[in-house]
Design goal:
Keywords: Signal. The chain is α/β, with parallel strands linked by helices. It has helices at 3-23, 46-53, 56-59, 72-80, 92-99, 148-159, 179-184, 197-204, 213-217, 229-234, 236-255, 258-265, 274-286, 298-310, 320-323, 327-335, and strands at 32-38, 62-68, 86-89, 106-113, 118-122, 139-141, 169-171, 190-194, 208-212, 223-228. It is 46% helix and 16% strand. α6 (148-159) links the parallel β6 (139-141) and β7 (169-171). α2 (46-53) crosses α11.
């Protein structure tokens, strides 16, 4: 075989190999990494864990890294400093950032929970029908000043004609993590608690849930996914995929049984008994705490600011269209089944 023939064969071989490579299976596309910072680890955020455990983020080509950044201030600091891309935190924090004059506003783009998540717990079993006026003259163990739980709590008390500063002894100087143990040890006649602590106290016979602050304070964007405007501007496709994954999780949670939801999120709560998880999921599902879509409507936004204003934590009302962007949630609701 002469050199010319050999050259032709090599050329044909090279062309064929390139054609086979081009027609063969493509290399899996690399996933886009998104760093989420959640304000706390809570069963209240069940749809987020469902989106991860059921692979809905992965289906959208996203590789999410979830970290817990305890407290709204720490979560917002991580977001503003670039330590995380997306924050799951109360919408009031975006208003606080605006009040401080940020040049890069924090935008709410997908709602996860639509009510307060705390409950009124009493030390003794309720005798007869509960009336909020029974709290007058009592010692009330509340939540942190300026936080959404405390604001929703005070809003509810005022709704029923109770002045939190005058009609009861209000205790607010106990760290969030220590509130349940403080109540168990004898502090307060009533306490405002998140789950699963409320259900756990009931199971232990050390407390009894008698009312829901979520039901009484109404619908509001209690917890939402948010990102800096600059991040959204350069990552619109990523934000849309993120909203799609959350919408699929919300659809799934809305139709799934309490047992199936509990199983889907159980790995995120390894130290919590399965019956406790089930009880908490049922309580939140029954009262409509899990948002069924990511849309934040203007009425919810105004209710949020009413709650903040009543607590004296709002310098001036924040424009709905400035801090809320529903375009991604709207598209997700239309396209995700």
């Amino acid at each position: 075989m002469n050199k010319k023939s050999l050259g032709i064969i090599l050329a044909v071989t090279l062309i064929l190999s390139l054609m086979i490579t081009a027609c063969g299976p493509k290399k899996a596309e690399e996933k886009t990494k998104v760093r989420i910072g959640e304000v706390t680890r809570s069963i209240f955020y069940a749809p987020q864990y469902v989106a991860i455990s059921k692979g809905f983020f992965a289906e959208q080509g996203l590789d999410v890294e979830l970290t817990t950044t305890p407290g709204g201030d720490k979560t917002m600091t991580a977001l503003l400093s670039g330590g995380i891309d997306v924050a799951l935190v109360g919408s009031e924090t975006s208003i606080y950032v605006q009040q401080q004059g940020s040049g890069d506003p924090v935008i709410n783009f997908s709602q996860l929970t639509q009510t307060d998540g705390t409950f009124l717990v009493t030390r003794k079993p309720l005798q007869g029908k509960f009336d909020w006026s029974q709290l007058k003259g009592s010692v009330f163990l509340g939540q942190r000043v300026g936080g959404m739980p405390q604001m929703a709590g005070e809003f509810t008390l005022k709704k029923f004609g109770i002045n939190p500063k005058q009609d009861l002894k209000l205790i607010q100087n106990i760290d969030f993590a220590n509130i349940p143990s403080a109540f168990v040890s004898g502090t307060g006649d009533y306490v405002q608690l998140f789950e699963p602590q409320a259900t756990m106290l009931e199971k232990e016979g050390k407390g009894y849930v008698i009312a829901s602050f979520g039901v009484e304070s109404g619908k509001l964007p209690y917890t939402a996914f948010m990102a800096k405007q600059s991040y959204i501007n350069k990552s619109k496709d990523t934000i849309q995929k993120f909203a799609n994954a959350i919408q699929k999780a919300q659809n799934w949670v809305a139709s799934a049984s309490v047992d199936d939801i509990s199983k889907a999120i159980s790995s995120y709560f390894p130290d919590t008994q399965s019956e406790i998880i089930q009880g908490v999921v049922k309580r939140y599902k029954d009262q409509g705490s899990f948002a069924t879509d990511g849309l934040i409507d203007e009425q919810e936004w105004n209710n949020l600011q009413d709650v903040m204003q009543a607590a004296g934590e709002l310098k001036q009302r924040a424009d709905y269209k400035t801090l809320v962007n529903n375009q991604f949630a709207e598209q997700a609701k239309k396209s995700v089944k």
